[in-house]
Amino acid sequence: MKQQQEQHLDISAVLAFMLIPLGGFATDIYLPSFPSMASDLGVGVGQIQLSLLLFMVSLGVSQFFAGAVLDSFGRYRISMGSLVVFSAASVAIAISRQIEVIYAMRVLQGLTVSLIIVGKRAFFVDSYSGEKLKHYTSLFSIVWAIAPVVAPFVGGYLHNQWGWQASFYFLSLATTLIFFLELSYSGESLRELRVFQWKPIIKTYGNMLTTADFALGVVIVGLSYALLVIFGMTSPFVIEHVYGFSPVISGYSSLLSGTAMMSGGIISKLLMNYPLRQKLYVAVTLQLLLAVTMLAAVRLNDNLPVLLMFTFSLHVGSGFIFNIIYAYCLQRFTQNAGIASGITGGGVYLISSLTNFVLTHLIRIDRAEPLVYANLIIITGLALVIPVFLKASFNLRGRQIQISNP
Questions:
Q1: What is the count of structural domains for the chain?
Q2: CA-to-CA distance for 21 and 76, rounded, in angstroms?
């Protein structure tokens, strides 16, 4: 097996950071194309949204098990194979005219992306320690947030020039390029493979999922991300059908949303020495106040600037909370980094996809006002879970935890 070479470690770290946002790229890049895809394929809006939810569920469920597989069989060969399959599935989506084939390929993409990104997050735990590891893990969610910033913007322009298929050709080309770079510079980072035994693995999963602060932390990051996803799923129809703008404007709007989430992550890093309790309470209280104010503003003047102004503010808070708790969960079980990474990452997609599936079926989000109601429901969920999380973290550690990096 090809081992990671020390002289190429920094290049491998850059490649790992390039792949960590892959799930977000595959999620967000075709959001501006939703209306056109529905029209071109002759299917309903809900069927196109289902392709996104299937990808997210596949990505979420498979991440739960990806960690155990990667801890037992290594990171490198599985990641390389997954890149090849993901690239091929992207081409299959671009040339397909059958929504069922697209569904199957999106599920396959979710599986392969989970193996890639869980392995790349674990790569840093394998390769670094101490302050350097803390520095890198604090960057995870900020780097991950690049996808919601860049992907819809890129997707909007690709769609405008060559149609919705161009986004999937782009994904195929990008992952093929990274495959060859990985082939040249990367290798196996796991020093010692763990024997794949069901009973110890199941016990490890059970211990993690029944650890209250960890499990509640996963719920918090899932709900925080759900706020971003519900906007990404529904805003193209509002922006293009209600306000009458183009897919490029939808892409810009999603870019603004992603920039807000990244900004929240950066702010949380700058405030990392402030008490955890105060940061979380202030953030979720401001989100509640903003959501209520947004509802009144939209009722008085329903237009794109109002929608984007409040969405930006809400997503800054979402990114702030997400970054703090995401890093917390990844550092909670360092001896089983792959499994902890898988549960945390999988939980983000499972909880956010389930939340948005329920909301889009309970609320017909075809205007700005129903979107605000969906935001209020998600933020109320955060407001209820955060105090329980803080109590659990205090009780389990015997003191209020101060996270060394947000």
A1: 1
A2: 18
